[in-house]
Design goal:
Blueprint lengths: L1 H41 L9 H10 L6 E5 L9 H5 L6 E4 L2 E4 L10 H5 L5 E5 L5 E5 L12 E3 L9 H17 L9 E4 L3 H12 L4 E5 L5 H4 L12 E3 L3 E3 L6 H15 L4 E2 L3 E7 L2 E6 L2 E5 L1 E4 L6 E2 L12 E2 L12 E5 L3 H11 L4 E5 L10 H13 L2 E4 L2 E7 L2 E6 L2 E6 L2 E4 L3 E2 L2 H7 L3 E5 L1
Parallel strand pairs: 6-15, 7-8, 7-15, 8-11, 17-24, 18-19, 18-24, 19-20
Antiparallel strand pairs: 1-4, 2-3, 5-26, 9-10, 12-13, 13-14, 16-25, 21-22, 22-23
Helix pairs in contact: 5-6, 9-10
């Protein structure tokens, strides 16, 4: 009895300890964080409210006399705070509500440190008055397109993070379920088995809805096409039927292990080799045609991704077996002569990865610089060029690919460059023509 009373007393002591040492301090910390965010929010000066004198002040401090300030893409920002830490002004950026926020554009000197430090590309320096326009499918807040019953989620909707795309997959099924008659469950057809599509598929199974998930390649192909060892920024998220998913900063291989574990545990059966060809209304439902096969559905969820088909050069020899459109394992090409076509982040990262494997790189770039690449990638590629491991051919285009050589045109000069392998990394053909053929409206949005 004394032992039992002693046990209960010890339990109360431990409970009190946890309350005063962990719980109460955590609550006070959250309260202070919330109050600090409120104070910071009151200090925000909108770019739209800047005066001419403010703009002139920004211009005078910029190294090149430009009117630059950082713009944050909140859908891509992971709230790591790296840009806030690296900002020399200390008053320009702040973390508010878990997102980097522009507090006072007047204090920015345009040094670009924040842009170069951002691990996700969410922070970009833009010029005052500049409008960035992108084409996107016309969808509402529930991800429903102009065709009732057809939804669009994932990167095609503008989402930039794995966590965000997974949340969209759950959200779209929650919306569908609000209008479901229990006596007649809708048949769901999901096109795409990346993070967004898989989340929607598992959510369908969770609600007991009959569902089919179609994928033209392999499940989670978005992740499979990352270069090996590439760091993936992931945040805690709840995957339907699987539970909490937390992988932190990881590699492609580790994230694929998690993905395969999800597929195994949830017994998700993905129909692969199914390339979407058409969606047509039929008797109040939809007829989906993929790789010559037909599927009937009441609700269609498109999680196609933004890359679509790799963009081709349309030059002789491009179909040769030594021509690739993505880099999976740089070690496979160790010590080779490699030509890489493109001036974006993917081509620069591939060039750096292959250079680390002792490859001799020729980088063929149509422009006279790297206007679309992140600042940190530009710095790294210029450093590699200075070391002599990367030969950059600006204002050049590929005219022909032959076994062992690539013919390059620079202004009026034609040159054959020795190469064992060729990587074409000039983006992808967006699936907009297919969507427009289906009847989905594509609109231009300012971001």
């Amino acid at each position: 009895m004394d032992v039992l009373m002693h046990f209960h007393g010890l339990r109360y002591v431990i409970g009190a300890f946890l309350l005063f040492v962990i719980v109460i301090p955590f609550i006070l910390w959250e309260i202070r964080k919330h109050r600090r965010a409120q104070r910071l929010a009151l200090r925000i000066i909108s770019v739209s409210k800047l005066t001419e004198a403010d703009i002139e002040s920004i211009r005078s401090r910029h190294p090149s006399g430009r009117r630059m300030y950082p713009r944050i893409n909140v859908s891509v920002c992971v709230g790591c705070g790296t840009c806030v830490i690296t900002c020399k002004a200390r008053k320009t950026l702040a973390l508010i509500g878990g997102k980097s926020t522009l507090l006072d554009p007047r204090t920015c000197d345009g040094c670009g440190e924040c842009e170069g430090a951002c691990p996700t590309g969410a922070n970009q320096l833009v010029e005052y008055g500049q409008k960035i326009k992108v084409r996107r499918p016309d969808i509402d807040l529930n991800y429903e397109s102009n065709i009732p019953g057809v939804y669009i989620i994932g990167t095609l909707s503008g989402a930039g993070l794995i966590k965000e795309t997974i949340n969209q997959g759950r959200a779209v099924l929650n919306h569908i379920m609000r209008g479901v008659d229990p006596r007649r469950l809708p048949q769901i057809v999901i096109v795409g088995a990346g993070p967004a599509g898989l989340s929607a598929f598992l959510s369908s199974k969770k609600f007991g809805l009959p569902a089919t998930c179609l994928e033209k390649e392999a499940a989670a192909n978005t992740i499979r096409n990352f270069p090996k060892k590439k760091i993936v920024m992931a945040e805690p998220v709840d995957m339907p039927l699987f539970g909490p998913l937390w992988v932190g900063d990881t590699t492609r291989e580790k994230l694929l292990e998690v993905w395969d574990r999800i597929l195994h545990k949830t017994e998700a059966r993905i129909t692969t080799g199914a390339n979407l060809e058409m969606i047509k209304p039929q008797d109040g439902r939809f007829l989906v045609t993929a790789s010559g096969r037909e599927y009937l559905g009441d609700k269609i969820i498109l999680a196609l991704g933004m890359r679509g088909e790799p963009r081709k050069l349309n030059v002789p020899g491009e179909k040769a077996p030594h021509v690739f459109y993505s880099l999976i394992d740089a070690a496979e090409f160790k010590g080779s002569d490699v030509a890489i076509v493109g001036g974006g982040d993917a081509s620069l990262e591939a060039a750096l990865a292959l250079a680390n494997q002792g490859c001799r790189i020729t980088l063929v770039v149509r422009d006279d610089g790297f206007p679309l690449a992140k600042a940190r990638n530009r710095e790294k590629i210029e450093a590699a060029r200075a070391r002599g491991v990367v030969d950059i051919r600006f204002q050049s285009v590929v005219k022909e690919i032959s076994p062992g050589t690539v013919r390059i045109a620079h202004l009026d000069k034609i040159e054959d460059v020795r190469n064992d392998f060729v990587f074409v990394m000039v983006g992808g053909e967006l699936p907009f023509p297919l969507l427009e053929k289906i009847g989905i409206r594509i609109v231009e949005k300012t971001v």
